[in-house]
Design brief:
Number of strands: 70
Mean pLDDT: 87
Distance between the termini: 88 Å
Shape: elongated
Low-confidence stretches: 1-35, 47-59
Structural class: mainly beta
Number of helices: 6
């Protein structure tokens, strides 16, 4: 039992530890020898509503969000009189993960019991890196250098050094020693409110030139003025990080340094001109109120220097404490009259006295002070400029609330959501449920409904789990109009007076997904469940829409293509996740492909093409064949006429007609035929010879007397095929999967085995147009003379597709699925010389088998089919020519075994060196494949030689 108790105690301890930990704040229950320290740092965050440093929602004194920026933090805890252990700890800069609320970042540290004085410094890594600090005196000796070669250099708005010193005044006004004491009996952490202070001075300079002023100098009024430069004079070369309240009397400090603060000739100068502003003198000593409020955007120089203008610039300068008034810092403002080289300068002393009427008090220029200077330029010369000066506090917001009584823990400070994706975050707090609130500071404009939060939260009070999701009131169109399809939203959870910020990244990029998009249905009337396929869709665009005129609800939409009918049904189209069904209604007889397009509701630019292939019942073998690029008349069994580019037709889809471009394949060779007028199928000129042979055919075409043959389609050239009107251009022949041969040659094994069953891998096929039967060789056939027949395919659906192309190598291809035949514009660029002809050698054109057919074309002048024109000159002045060659190819397989003649017979080169160059664009419905041939080096490369 004791062992079990120990285990339970350990688990309880781990649970307690987990409940007090998130990925930013680390707070462990104190061990006997350790205490705890909680440091709060004020933060100025720029919300969407903050438009300037003077906005009421910005909790600062004349400090902008940029000025309050914290890039780095460092904490020092110095033990008092040796009571404790020195701690030097770098802290992460404030971010959403360590925000206690929208104004305060929190840090929890473990520290040894003792009495300490705690300092926190910001934006001083470059200074601290060169100083070894182990005691409070070491820190007090740190100096801030402002010369170009010292650190940190002249202050800049987004990286101003800041420091928190131990408080010596309690909330009730009494004096305290600024120490904190941590005991090993503490059960709650000691609190340090690290109210950071700027270590420099902010000066807002306003110079007004108004020719309408009553006492304006006449020359200045008629010629105008422009500021040329501003120089900081007698600026402190360095200051102590911790000031002891005494003036620096060293000679170097008294002399000071100069720094050019503005140069009109520099493109990055700090200073702008305005033509419109309002002036409220009563704001001179009112915190968070400016005397001058500018309107509009500033410009680098006035459009007309003779007209009224205001020059404004903000500078961050070293504090200065001197022994004599003559040593105080000043600004020297240079100006040019009428754009001439005539120089004027105006001196502005910096600093103030507690009693401005005193004649003996030395002015001070203290850190954390905001000076708004308004000076009117009315005269010429080198003079001190009379100015109105507002002197106000300049500091971040201070922490004035006790945050120690409320606890809030979150399991994560980051989450990701999307249109169909939600996120969950767990939280623990000691406040009642009614005091838990959630919100999102990031909003976008809802069309016709105003701004709405991007993220909404749902709280499960019982489980302390928050569900974050995209606001359902916002559409993708709203996000698109706001140019905010992706981003990170500022989301918060508030428990009592503690507010934790969370980063919730979101992505509502439009999507429309359909799966599958290629559907195959094998028609089987006896197995009706297999006739229906289910297609899923998901979208964040409101749903799915089908082609215009379709009614997919209820009984669904019947769609017919050739002899095939399918039904598409979808009961719910306006959902984010849904399905629709596709059912094969009729036997297609031959494989048929339906193509239609579905779109996202409300966005017709987001669409998906669906292909539905319906196959006939599995039973007989369906043997399909097609010939392409074979448009050359046969002069005789051994020779071809010129290729007829003028009779090439582009591919055509099924058109419910007996005529179609795809039927023109060159195999119809009836005497006197006119291809230009014929678009019909010709079954008598498309034959298939099916046989089984045991024994080899010799290289010369002869066979041994014992070679046995069994014939399934009679003797050579076999049976005529049928035109597949479902797939124009293709012919087919069907034969039972268990068909027996009808006859044999009565040789060899055929003498004893009268019949053979058709068998994949053994039965052979030869296709031809059935001409020149006595010679055996002719161009319109495959395989060619003396080549072995093509073996019957062994595909599960018993369908095979044979494509013949005499311009390719190999000259035939076999496919399980119907290949997509496309029109290709081979676009060929040649340097200096034109393509004049092409040719290709293939097949066998004599009985000996030692010669080939030549397909050829010498007419490079057929518009849009085979023609050559000048393309242009390259950067070297070389003229290039562009040749278009229109041929057909299976999609993605564009290589051809075709020779090009360049400049007559000067150069013969294989198209693209025989490589399969990719298609990079479309020309209408033609696929464009480009390649360039350098006639000097005889080399090819993909693409055009240069862009026009």
């Amino acid at each position: 039992m004791k062992r079990l108790a120990d285990i339970l105690l350990s688990v309880a301890a781990l649970l307690l530890l987990a409940a007090c930990t998130d990925d930013a704040d680390v707070y462990n229950t104190p061990a006997p020898s350790e205490g705890n320290l909680c440091v709060y740092v004020p933060v100025t965050r720029e919300g969407d509503e903050v438009t300037s440093s003077l906005d009421p929602s910005n909790p600062t004194y004349n400090a902008s969000v940029e000025e309050c920026n914290i890039n780095d933090l460092h904490l020092y805890a110095f033990p008092v009189d040796g009571n404790g252990t020195f701690l030097s700890q770098e802290l992460p800069s404030p971010e959403a993960s360590n925000m206690l609320n929208e104004k305060v970042a929190s840090y929890k540290l473990q520290i040894k019991p003792g009495t300490y004085r705690v300092y926190v410094v910001a934006n001083m890594n470059d200074v601290l890196d060169v100083n070894s600090i182990t005691t409070e005196d070491d820190l007090k000796k740190v100096v801030l250098g402002y010369t170009p070669v010292s650190k940190p250099g002249m202050p800049v708005a987004n990286n101003i050094p800041m420091i928190y010193e131990p408080d010596t005044k309690a909330a009730d006004g009494s004096t305290v020693d600024g120490t904190i004491t941590i005991k090993n009996t503490d059960t709650t952490p000691q609190i340090v409110m690290a109210n950071l202070r700027f270590t420099c001075v902010k000066v807002c300079l306003n110079l007004i030139y108004n020719p309408e002023d009553a006492d304006m100098n006449a020359a200045l009024k008629s010629n105008g003025l422009q500021i040329t430069d501003i120089i900081g004079k007698q600026l402190s070369p360095q200051t102590s990080l911790l000031w002891d309240g005494k003036p620096n009397v060293s000679d170097d400090y008294a002399k000071g340094i100069e720094s050019k603060l503005y140069d009109a000739t520099a493109s990055t100068s700090n200073g702008s001109y305005y033509t419109s502003w309002t002036e409220t003198p009563a704001n001179a000593n009112v915190n968070n109120k400016d005397i001058i409020t500018v309107e509009g955007e500033g410009v680098a120089k006035p459009a007309d220097s003779k007209q009224k203008w205001l020059f404004r610039a903000t500078y961050y300068l070293p504090e200065r404490y001197v022994a004599k008034a003559s040593q105080q810092s000043a600004l020297k403002v240079g100006g040019a009259v009428g754009g001439s080289a005539i120089a004027n300068s105006y001196n502005i002393n910096l600093g103030h006295r507690k009693d401005e009427t005193s004649k003996t008090e030395v002015p001070t220029f203290p850190r954390g002070t905001y000076y708004e200077i308004v000076g009117r330029i009315k005269s010429l010369g080198n003079i001190d400029l009379d100015c109105v000066v507002g002197v106000e506090k300049w500091q971040m917001a201070t922490i004035d609330a006790d945050f120690n009584h409320t606890t809030l823990w979150v399991s994560s400070t980051k989450a990701e959501v999307g249109s169909q994706k939600v996120a969950f975050i767990d939280y623990l707090t000691n406040v009642t449920n009614g005091d838990i609130k959630f919100g999102c500071d990031t909003e976008i404009e809802k069309i016709s409904a105003g701004k709405l939060p991007v993220i909404v939260a749902t709280d499960d009070i019982a489980t302390h789990r928050i569900r974050f999701s995209i606001n359902p009131e916002l559409s993708v169109k709203d996000f698109t109009e706001a140019n905010a399809l992706t981003g990170t939203a500022k989301v918060w959870i508030k428990a009592g007076n503690i507010k934790k910020y969370l980063d919730v990244s979101y992505d509502v990029t439009p999507y429309f997904k359909v799966d599958p998009v290629d559907i195959v249905i094998q028609y089987d009337a006896e197995n009706s469940p297999e006739l229906t396929k289910v297609v899923k869709f998901t979208t964040n665009l409101g749903g799915i829409q089908f082609p215009d005129g379709w009614t997919v609800s209820g009984e669904g939409q019947n769609v017919e293509y050739a002899q095939s009918k399918i039904n598409i049904k979808c009961d719910k189209t306006n959902v984010a996740d849904g399905t629709f069904t596709i059912t094969a209604v009729t036997n297609p007889v031959t494989t048929t492909t339906h193509v239609f397009t579905v779109k996202a509701i409300g966005d017709n630019n987001v669409e998906q093409q669906i292909r539905v292939t319906v196959r006939p019942p599995v039973g007989p073998y369906h043997i399909y064949m097609r010939a392409i690029n074979d448009l050359a008349w046969t002069k005789d069994a051994s020779n071809l006429d010129e290729f007829q580019h003028s009779n090439m037709l582009d591919e055509e889809a099924y058109n419910n007609s007996k005529e179609n471009n795809n039927w023109r394949d060159g195999w119809w060779v009836q005497g006197g035929a006119d291809w230009s007028k014929d678009r019909s199928s010709h079954v008598d000129y498309h034959k298939v010879y099916i046989y089984t042979q045991i024994g080899e055919t010799k290289a010369d075409g002869t066979k041994d007397e014992n070679v046995a043959e069994w014939y399934f389609t009679g003797g050579w050239p076999g049976h005529s095929m049928k035109a597949d009107n479902n797939n124009p251009g293709w012919y087919y022949y069907s034969i039972a999967h268990n068909a027996m041969s009808g006859s044999n040659n009565n040789k060899g094994q055929a003498q004893t085995t009268a019949e053979k069953m058709i068998k994949p891998g053994q039965t052979l096929l030869i296709f031809s147009n059935g001409t020149y039967l006595s010679t055996g060789f002719q161009p319109h056939r495959f395989t060619h003379h003396n080549d072995p027949g093509i073996t019957l395919f062994n595909y599960e659906d018993r369908e095979g597709w044979y494509l013949y192309d005499p311009l390719s190598d190999p000259y035939y291809r076999v496919y399980d699925e119907k290949p997509t035949v496309v029109d290709v514009e081979y676009t060929i660029y040649t340097k200096n010389k034109k393509i004049t002809a092409w040719y290709s050698r293939f097949g066998v054109n004599n009985g000996a088998g030692d010669s080939k057919f030549t397909m050829w074309c010498n007419s490079c002048n057929v518009p849009n089919e085979f023609e050559c024109k000048e393309y242009g000159q390259d950067s070297n002045g070389k003229t290039w020519y562009k040749t278009i060659l229109h041929l057909k190819a299976p999609l993605g397989e564009y290589d051809k075994l075709l020779k090009l003649k360049v400049n007559g017979d000067e150069i013969h080169t294989t198209l693209f060196d025989g490589d399969n160059y990719p298609s990079t664009k479309m020309h209408g419905k033609r696929y464009v494949v480009e390649g360039s041939f350098d006639t000097d080096t005889k080399t090819w490369k993909k693409g055009a030689p240069f862009k026009k």
